[in-house]
Amino acid sequence: MVFLSFTLLTCVQKEKKNEDTSNWDIISNWIETEERVPHYNTLYFADGQGYEFRNESSNKLLIPLTGGPDWFGNRVGEIGERLNWNPFVNWIMPLYEDYNFFVPEKFDWGRGTMPFWNIENREKYTFDNLIANYASIIREYLSQNEYDTIIIFGHSEGGIIAPELYFLLEDFNISAIVSSGAGGLVSPLDTFVSKIATKYVEENLPDKPFDYIYYPDMIHYPMTTRELITMRADIAAWLKEKGL
Fold it and tell me: Percentage helix, strand, coil, to 5, in the chain?
């Protein structure tokens, strides 16, 4: 298993140079593109549901785990919508050309719900409960499908959870983890996450199969189209370099 952090993860660090971003359009926290949500299937499991973006020409799987707690939306928007409903999935959508996606829904929220107003949903939203829920849904999905390559890709909350899921799903031979904005395992010069914590992990675990990419001017997520394009290219290049 190899690990890329955003910070991206294996044991080479690339330090991005400062660039003049004054002429780059800052769209919003939710970068909008002309890309559209492709077709997907909603699948139901014992402990919840998930969304499968099937690529029949690929035997590789990417499992995106978003940040949180995200009380006000679902993991996936309507088919055909512009990709502004979930910035994290938006970041990696170009990889759909080479990978299948499976996006687990949190708990049993389903589509069209507003979990903020449901106190029972909010009470069960703990780190341990979410890990157990993700693990159950992903395990059931993987037991029904065969993939040669399986990559967990987590941002923020999802990036913190990803390593724990790796151990809970180790019998499925997870190939790699990509983690962004997630504490000691990751961070760009992050307003939410300390770069010092990431540097500490990098410098004190020198023999671990981790790679790091730092984005000195980026906050907790890409805020400009240029930042989004750069991050997408770096992820794709790292996956290609690792033969994934």
Answer: 35, 20, 45
